[in-house]
Amino acid sequence: MKIGILSRNQSLYSTSRLIEAAESRGHEVKVIDALRCYMNINSEKPQIHFKGEELVDYDAIIPRIGASVTFYGTAVLRQFEMMGVYPVNESVAITRSRDKLRSMQLLSRKGIGMPITGFASKPDDVKDLLDMVGGAPVVIKLLEGTQGIGVVLAETRKAAESVVEAFMGLKANIMVQEFIKEAGGADIRCFVIGGKVIAAMKRQGAEGEFRSNLHRGGSASLVKLTPEERKTAVAAANIMGLNVAGVDLLRSDRGPLVMEVNSSPGLEGIEAATGKDVAGLIIDFIEKNAATKRTKTRGKG
């Protein structure tokens, strides 16, 4: 099988592990920088060129598209879909999950548990917005932020009002969410492949840090999921339309709450914490599904 990996850096842990897992199973693998691709968009034979070479005869494509290049990266992925190449995650699903507000609305519509979330555009509405989510402390998130960047915990109402007004003054789009105190600065990353949770880890924030991101000093450990947590993680991935996803949950007094659904979850932390060959399981999924070249979004916007 000929597999392409849309990644800007083949030395990244996740990319290199996917290469290793695919090659060990006898597949041909090429790492493709989406920003170096250019496309011939036509109704007869859509094409993608990369560094002067036409990319042809690919069976599957694994998108590892960074948040900063979502627009162009998903355009390239969409072109692969139009050419009949099987995408591990489809372009529409990635775009849907990257829009924090849209993803929360979709999860809410399906009755998935989540922190109470508020959204507004005018500073005049801040006081009522804070009341809507239960008052301080609150978590304030930039919609465009990733990996914990642009996430602020405002512990008092005055601090929350100041932060929200400051972000709005900069024309930044933000969400305001209730703070789940009982989570204790920890969350659970559930790794979903093909509608099953294949691995899970608990991420604990560093001392004095409410964000649990590993690169911010957080630690990871094995965790046993409840049936409700498994069901919630699988449902969240399915609602986004993602075959491979990292679903981040908070344990609350009212059950598991979805914090985020990640379309390009990192492999290093989950493989280290669980000892599982997650990269190999992704390749296994491709082997079982790519032959059919099923692309639901082919021909759609």
UniProtKB/TrEMBL annotation:
One of its GO terms (molecular function) is metal ion binding. Mg(2+) 1 binds at residues 248, 260. Its cofactor is Mg(2+); Mn(2+). Its EC number is 6.3.2.-. Keywords: ATP-binding, Ligase, Magnesium, Manganese, Metal-binding, Nucleotide-binding, Protein biosynthesis. GO terms for biological process: SOS response; translation. Mg(2+) 2 binds at residues 260, 262. It is an enzyme of class 6 (ligase). Mn(2+) 1 binds at residues 248, 260. Mn(2+) 2 binds at residues 260, 262. ATP binds at residues 141, 178-179, 187, 211-213. Signal peptide: none annotated. The keyword Membrane does not apply. Binds 2 magnesium or manganese ions per subunit. InterPro entries: ATP-grasp, ATP-grasp_RimK-type, ATP_grasp_subdomain_1, RimK, Rimk_N, Rp_bS6_RimK/Lys_biosynth_LsyX. GO terms for cellular component: cytoplasm. Coiled coil: none annotated. Residues 104-287 form the ATP-grasp domain. In the C-terminal section; belongs to the RimK family. This is Probable alpha-L-glutamate ligase. It comes from Aliivibrio sifiae. The gene is rimK.
